[in-house]
Amino acid sequence: MIVARSGETGRQGETNQSVGIVKSSLPFLSLAVIVKDQADHLDTLLRDHRTLYDEAVVVDTGSRDGSREVATLHGARLISSQWGHDFSAARNRGLDAARGRWVVVLDCDEAITPVDQEDLRNLLESLSPSLVVLEQRNYTWRRQALGFVPNGPGQEGLACKSPGYIPRRQIRVFPGGTGITYSGRVHETVERSPASRNYKKIKLDICIHHYGHLEGSGGHLRRSRRNGELLRREVHDRPQDPVLLTEFATQLVAEGQTEAARRLCHRAVAVAPGHSELYQAHLMLARLGWGDCPEQACHEAETALRSRPDLPECWIEAARANALRGNLPRARKLCAQGQALFPLDTVLGKMETQVFPQSGDNTREGLGW
Q1: Residue 230 belongs to some domain of the structure
Q2: Are residues 197 and 249 in the same domain?
Q3: Average pLDDT of span 231-248
Q4: DSSP code, position 144
Q5: If pLDDT is split at 50, 70 and 90, which confidence band does 155 have?
Q6: pTM
Q7: CATH number of domain containing 309
Q8: Which of 135, 138, 205, 297 has its CA 20 to 30 A from that of 118?
Q9: H-type alpha helices, 238-293
């Protein structure tokens, strides 16, 4: 039994002219979310996305703050799951219970705007079963973070309180009941699921706004420690995975262990030369080399650009690295080429004044970085 929208037609052909109950064993879109002690965030998520989903599946991993009651109040299907230090295991409990033709996966501290919710449903109506890639915008106070993008005009709510965000492309919507599963204790993904190989990827111009990093320092530190421990376990199990090694290196940078992060990035490059995702390791090595080894930083950034010229962040870092090295003609050329390829990218659009400071100061501080 699911709640149908006014005028919707059920899977069995029944039409409901007013909000009511329609007999159907297959909702159109299921929202899958995991929670532990996030009652306020869960309440906001379920309330603000009610026009998006037809059923909500909430996997609770041991809440004591009323999260379970919030899920029940909103009519969600509540699944109890003991926390096993594995985000994928919890995610997969939710996928097992979801009945929708499509599943959208969100966290309690994430949001999709009402306009994008409507667009997403409309697009899914006409889309064949696919792995749908959305952009997650991780809002942050850290302007120097790798891949940082300044906020553009018209930002609302919590987003406008931060200077910008770090974008990540992720598969967040996929066909339900197809055996697609998550893997990875932390930074979990469906990319490696055997069932995912049966579907093509589709990128949609829809954003997931993630505000978790804007919360108080106490919560951020707890999450950082937790993620660090889970990543250490994961690296122990998969020591040759270059993407995982780079993710762990990112964690080490956050912990202030820059030399250990540098070693991990070099290790990632060594174990999987030519891997399509190694650009992340090269970009991190470039940033880590800004201060003490600008020539090596420039080499790493240029390597990342050769690997993934389809990504604006590679053009950005290559231009920055060349400017910091003092090669302003090369930086100027990269900046112009990047702007031509990505005219809507706000960072590239602002680089003209950054790369060519009037003072001639091409230090990191002089360039505004």
Answers
A1: no
A2: no
A3: 87
A4: T
A5: low
A6: 0.72
A7: 1.25.40.10
A8: 138
A9: 242-254, 258-271, 279-288
If asked whether residues 160 and 197 sit together in one domain, one would say: yes
CATH code of residue 76: 3.90.550
For the chain, the domain total comes to: 2
Percent of the chain beyond pLDDT 90? 55
Token representation of residue 46: 């379920």
What's the confidence (pLDDT) of residue 3? 35
Crossing angle (nearest 10°) for helices 258-271 and 242-254:
170
Q: What is the mean pLDDT of the chain?
A: 84
Question: Closest Cα partner for 100 from 6, 180, 16, 42?
Answer: 180
Q: Is residue 222 a part of any domain in this protein?
A: no
Task: Quick: pLDDT tens for 159-177.
Answer: 667 888 888 889 999 999 9
Which of the pair, 141 or 147, is modelled with greater confidence? 141
For 148, residues 6+ apart whose C-beta sits below 8 A from its C-beta are 140, 142, 164, 165, 166, 347
Residues 274 and 330 in one domain: yes
Listed residues 181, 214, 247: the one ending a domain: 214
